[in-house]
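ARCHIVE CARD
Drawer: 12
Card no.: 0347
Subject: one protein chain, sequence and derived structure
Cross-reference: see card 0346
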Amino acid sequence: MKIEDLVITGIKTNMCCESTARDAYYRDYRVFFLADATGSITDEMQLASLLNLALGFAFVTYVDHIVSELNQSTAR
């Protein structure tokens, strides 16, 4: 299917979402992790996962940014 990019959203940032992002990274996908479309039990757990992922496993970004990029891409 020639999929290269994945956008990660969901709950349990520090468990399921982070595991999915890391697995995708190791499978050579470009991972976009939406900080405002994921969530954890505590703010500390959320921030810890976002920092870990931003160090190399994913591009941590926001919904508005991804939507803007998609709109620009379809306009081309």
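Annotation on reverse: The chain has one domain: 5-75. The mean pLDDT is 95.
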